[in-house]
Amino acid sequence: MRFAANLSMMFTERPFLERFAAAAAAGFDAVEFLFPYEVPAERIKAALDAHGLTQALFNLPPGDWTAGERGIACLPGREAEFREGVAAAIAYAKVLGNRLLHCMSGIPPDGLPDGVEREAALALYTDNLRHAAAACAEAGLTLLVEPINNRDMPGYLMNGTALARRVIGAVGAPNLKLQLDLYHCQISEGDLATRIRANADLTAHVQIAGVPDRNEPDRGEVHYPYLFEVLAGTGYRGFIGCEYRPRARTEDGLDWFRAARERSRQAAR
């Protein structure tokens, strides 16, 4: 198992660029974060290199985050902005070296509509993904879609693994894959071991957090040591992104991480 610390949620006791050193000191060899665009790519790359870290992934620009936007791929009239965001994300990835980019679907203007309106939002989302996947393919990158639960993000369009499979199939791009966040999946669907196995053919990145409170993964209702075995059994060899909110100081809640690394080392012997 290879773990990536999510620096948008972990080590937040420090300024952003100081979190790289903290992640490396804690034993992580990779990082991820939501959005890099407020920091020059060269400064992030310098932090990665200084601490021997791999950049796992980050998200395309989400629109106006402070105004509640959570991606613009399904928002009509924003197509030009979306394409500019794709180009910006690819430019950052070329500097940082990650091979994965996540595209947030967004929340339709009227929340999560039914019928014709929902299908129109999905059609626009699919068209935008088709463009983004083609641009990513030219750069040697893989584009990801991630189902996010509607409790944490009400009205979010991409909200289930069945829908993700439908959209990925409709786009038809070999470099469009699934980002399987087991925290969101447990809240939306449950039956995690079955979901992992059923979607192993499309899964390119996995994320974890404790359920229901999104704290450390050794808290709550999900038994991650078992799920790590399930993931390994499917042949998954990508990173596991640690996208959770520590209950206190990040380093004080990493017993689960040390235990998981030790189990992985023993299994590899």
UniProtKB/TrEMBL annotation:
Positions in coiled-coil regions: none
GO molecular function: isomerase activity
Keywords from the named record: Isomerase
Domain of life assignment: Bacteria
Xylose isomerase-like TIM barrel domain span: 20-259
Species of the source: Azospirillum isscasi
UniProt keyword annotation of Endoplasmic reticulum present: no
NCBIfam families for the chain: OxoTetrIsom (NF043033)
Family to which the UniProt record says this protein belongs: Belongs to the hyi family.
InterPro entries the record matches: HPT_OtnI_isomerases (IPR053398), HyI-like (IPR026040), Sugar_Epim/Isomerase (IPR050417), Xyl_isomerase-like_sf (IPR036237), Xyl_isomerase-like_TIM-brl (IPR013022)
Protein name: Hydroxypyruvate isomerase family protein
Keyword Isomerase in annotation: yes
Pfam families: AP_endonuc_2 (PF01261)
Source taxonomy: Bacteria, Pseudomonadati, Pseudomonadota, Alphaproteobacteria, Rhodospirillales
